[in-house]
């Protein structure tokens, strides 16, 4: 399974290269079944040769990105609601943060078809990243430990306090950049309804351990979803609930909707 912190869904040069390999491979298979010349490559078959005296048009970066996104949707069979504009969640090394990010991320990806990116930072960098707009949301941050920062960003309107995953008794808040209300307003409403509570989150986080025999955060999320369906089902629409249930039943435990196998038994391209 892919590293849960790694998000290959953004249209980056590396991701475009991987997608090209998928498309080239698929094109080559189709070409070999319909053309008799085994020396033609997939690119030669798929790309028309310019007439003599004409120059092939060079695509602009924007057009290339649009084409790559379109090709990716064709290959994987779906598009995210926010394709090309992932919701960026602050992440740092901490069991509770790993658990929360995986839980909220799983609901957003599998239930609501949102593309997300976990942005690796240190804990202090998370606050400055949100203030600078390089992070969209922090799912748990202490408003007493970071009181100066919290008061500054909320009083100025840079950020919004949208609740707590721990319920009404907790000091740890969900803080989102105010621009998220314009870009992805539904995501703010979805996240504000997610409240597993302090007891459940502390119990699951305490069971996460490293090593080969340890319990990973994404597995802890599956335990929660299977044991507390009566709780989380109340936060979701009927369609989102069906999406999460389907993901659980088909064994999807990561923050991807679909993976395609590449050239090799351990090579996968995920979105």
How would you summarize this macromolecular structure in one to three sentences?
The chain has 12 helices and 7 strands. It is mostly helical. It has a domain of 163 residues: 3-Layer(aba) Sandwich (D-Maltodextrin-Binding Protein, domain 2).
Strand order of the largest sheet: 3-5-4
**Helix content range of the residues, please?**
40-55%
N- and C-termini, Cα separation: 13 Å
- List segments where confidence is low: pLDDT < 50 over at least 5 consecutive residues: 1-11, 24-51
| Largest sheet descriptor | 3 strands, antiparallel
Strand content: 5-15%
* Assembly type: single chain
Q: What is the name of the CATH class of the domain at 87-249?
A: Alpha Beta
- Number of strand segments: 7
CATH architecture of the domain at 87-249: 3-Layer(aba) Sandwich
Q: Mind telling me the C-alpha Rg?
A: 22 Å
Computed structural class: mainly alpha
CATH superfamily placement of the domain at 87-249: Periplasmic binding protein-like II
The name of the CATH topology of the domain at 87-249 is D-Maltodextrin-Binding Protein, domain 2
Quick one: overall form?
A: globular
Number of continuous helical runs? 12
């Amino acid at each position: 399974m892919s590293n849960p912190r790694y998000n290959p869904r953004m249209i980056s040069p590396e991701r475009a290269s991987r997608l090209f390999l998928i498309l080239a491979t698929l094109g080559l298979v189709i070409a070999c079944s319909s053309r008799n010349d085994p020396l033609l490559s997939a690119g030669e078959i798929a790309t028309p040769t310019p007439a003599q005296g004409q120059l092939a048009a060079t695509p602009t970066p924007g057009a290339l990105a649009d084409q790559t996104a379109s090709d990716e949707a064709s290959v994987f069979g779906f598009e995210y609601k926010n394709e090309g504009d992932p919701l960026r969640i602050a992440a740092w090394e901490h069991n509770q943060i790993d658990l929360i990010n995986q839980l909220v991320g799983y609901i957003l990806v599998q239930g609501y078809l949102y593309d997300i990116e976990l942005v690796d930072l240190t804990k202090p960098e998370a606050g400055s990243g949100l203030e600078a707009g390089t992070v969209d949301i922090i799912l748990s941050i202490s408003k007493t430990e970071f009181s100066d920062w919290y008061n500054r960003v909320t009083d100025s309107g840079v950020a919004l306090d949208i609740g707590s995953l721990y319920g009404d008794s907790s000091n740890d808040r969900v803080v989102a950049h105010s621009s998220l209300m314009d870009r992805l307003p539904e995501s703010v409403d979805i996240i504000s309804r997610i409240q597993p509570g302090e007891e459940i989150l502390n119990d699951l986080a305490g069971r996460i351990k490293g090593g080969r025999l340890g319990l990973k955060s994404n597995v802890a999320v599956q335990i929660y979803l299977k044991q507390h369906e009566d709780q989380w089902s109340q936060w979701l629409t009927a369609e989102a609930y069906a999406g999460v249930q389907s993901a659980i039943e088909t064994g999807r435990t990561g923050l991807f909707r679909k993976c395609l196998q590449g050239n090799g038994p351990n090579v996968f391209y995920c979105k």
